[in-house]
Amino acid sequence: MRIVMVKVDQAVLADPVRLKAVELSKRLLPVLPMPVDEIARLAARLTGAPMAVVTLVGSEEEFFAGTYALPETLGSRGKRLPLEYSLCKYVVSSDHLLGVEDMRASDDPELCEHLLTREYGVRAFLSVPVRDTEDRPVGSLTVLDTEVRGWTDEHSATLLEIEHLLRPPAGWTALPAAVDGLDSAALLDSVPQALLAVDANGIIVGFNRAAEDLLGFTAAEVRGCSLDDCIHPDYDHQPIGAALDRLFAAAPTRPVRRQVRLRHRDGRRLLTEVALTVVRGSAGALACVLITDLTGSKAVEERADHNASFLNALLDSLSVGVVACDAAGGLVVMNRALREVYGLPATSDLPTDYATAIGRFLYDSDNKPLPWRSAPLMRACAGEYVRDTDIFIAVPGHRNRTFSVTAQPIVTPDGRRTGAVAVSHEVTAVRRVERFRACHEAVELALKSAASIADATPSVLQAVVTTLGWSAAELYLVDEITGQLHTVGHWNGTAMDIEDFFGHTPVKGAGATGRVWKTGQPFWIREIGEATMLRSPFERERVEICLRSGIHSVLAVPVSDGRSLLGVLTCYAGAAEHHEDMLTVLLDGVAAQIGIFVALRRAEELSRQLGRMQDDFISLVGHELRTPLTAITAYAGMLADDYSEDDEGRAMVQSIERNAAELQTIVATLLDLAGLDSGHLNLNIRRVDLTTIIAECEAASHHHDVRFHTDMPDAVTIDGDPDRLRQVVQDLLDNAAKYSPGGSDVHVSLETDGQMAELCVSDEGIGTPRDERERVFDRFYRGSNVRHHGTNGSGLGLSRARTIVHLHGGTIQLLDNEPTGTVAVVRLPHEQDAALTVRRL
């Protein structure tokens, strides 16, 4: 076998003489004695290849004259392909047999990357030139394999022999010579349409291959037979002989067309259209009957009607909207779902004035009118691919709806745009959920930045109305004193007349707001004009006001703190709404935010009132007690001087003096705390040495039954009030000694990390229960173990210590001291900013 390198000789391919021979071969190959498809099949079988093809190659394309087992997308008889898919061009250019065993492994990059290899997996081929009567290469006979093949000399010889079957007989240089006399079977078989030749007596003298395929008879079965004996033509219920007589007599120059039913060999009746002409030749006058099968056409029409009906039914069953237009932008399809959106009848003709009938309802994502030319369908008609674009459709009298639209042009295989199609998927609920999230965030921000619910109400209601796309909203709260429901504020998102609309006094149990006030449950009115439950004069008056203002739907939800009703949030819509559950969830969430805010503000106000009352009480009690206690102490001292040392009365007077002094200390501490908390007592801030303060407090402690151990640096200076810090240290040392057993140790340590100074006072006493460590800093609170221990105390020392430490910007806490006892830890800023050191409450 001879293997040559592939090459393309454009001069050979474009040779005018060769191209003329190619065109002649296209006409001659179909009328060869052996069909070209059969020759291709024979080549494949004898070489053991799975595919074969006979091709003719021009200067720019390849023509498939016969094929065997090629993929449908690759080629069929009569198909044309660009030269990029051609192997024939190499064979014709070289005019030699060409074989390749593995195209992918070829040294020639053109073969490695050939489209047949890349797209169809062809690995090997063997090809020989197909020649015309003048021995010019016009095409090739090629066998192909998707596996690597080792082509043999025997394969090459076989292919060369088969190629001779593709050569026309000598003398077939022109087609007219083959048809002289109209009695050539080859000519009849070359006609792709079914054709009969009938003499004047109705005897069939010609019957081509296409007629065999259509009617099921072979030419041998019908030649020499009368029409009535085989195909039984029904010629308008007239005898066929009479019709033939008229035909031969008239000898029309143009074909006479009639619909005729012919009998198939299996007995079926076929509806056909026949074109009747009279041709005179060497065999005399013959009637040529060209037959077109209308059965298939009828079936195609019926199938098209069925497909159209199926398509319409399918489109109308879809929940998404579908619309299509032609190349000029005219609407040709709109399914039922989209018609309902626009309020169009389900079966009427589509409007011709699209911009007015449909386009005026369209709005973009910014809620601005969307020109018809900018609609997704029109953009696709201009060639643009539109993906997931949101549009709003607002039809008067219908609820506003949001759609995500995808549109694309309709393009034919040859690249022509014939129109466009758009699919609209409703995302009203999805976008609403997204806006709900933003609404909750906006409500939260409005509440956080407002000092009172009255200040927050306009921003809160604006966020709700904007999110819903509704008309207005109003907030009512229950008065804590009277228990009546009164308006706090409203928001109007439209230009409606608000006279008599807002600010009315609700009636408990009447109307949407009043019913929620009474039941504590949400209340929904989908269409207020049809609400039969609103019968009372007050309710009918409110209905009239709403209808006059263009309101159709009302939704009211309770505002509560989880236990009691605090108010009602009522919203109004200009169109009937249908998403009751979803909207109720949104407003319930907003109402809950409002309820928490109102409850917190009321709790804060109550706390402030209680704090003021407590401070006023302490101040009052402190000042009222100080004067009598001073007098008691003074008189007790004077009485003590009247008794001798061993007199029993002296001991009693001293007890009075001692207890009065303790009361004075408690009163002084209370007043001190009240002054610090209220800011009436200021800190005297300066640079102080904590080490010195601790040492002085330790020296002043008179608890001789405990031992103090200190671990401190030479000096730790901070910005603070020395007297107040001395109070903190002294209270901590006194507590440690008071609640420690005799003979135990109290450890005092002080250290700093450069930013904070940390003082620790550790004792081995009774400790503090873990769940009470925060409460012991409250006024008058004493731990349960202390109360049971019987140790006296006022419960004010740690409270004052925490207040002082906090005023210095520090912290104080109690920790366990294993195995027994408590560690009091105070952390104070070591290097404070000047602005923080002068902190006052």
Backbone CA Rg? 53 Å
Q: Mean pLDDT, as a whole number?
A: 81
The general outline is elongated
Count the helices. How many?
28
Trace the largest sheet across and list its strands.
3-2-1-6-5-4
How would you characterize the largest beta sheet? 6 strands, antiparallel
Give the helix proportion (percent range): 25-40%
The total beta strand count reads: 29
Unreliable stretches (pLDDT < 50, length at least 5) are 173-183, 832-841
Distance between the termini: 108 Å
Strand content: 15-25%
Structural class category: alpha+beta
Please supply descriptive tags for the structure shown above.
28 helices, six-stranded antiparallel β-sheet, alpha+beta, disordered C terminus, 841 residues, single chain, elongated, 23% strand
Model description:
It is a single chain. With 841 residues, the chain is an alpha+beta fold. The chain is built from 28 helices and 29 strands. The strands form six sheets. A six-stranded antiparallel beta sheet has the order 3-2-1-6-5-4, with helices on both faces. Strand 18 (472-478) and strand 19 (485-492) form a beta hairpin.
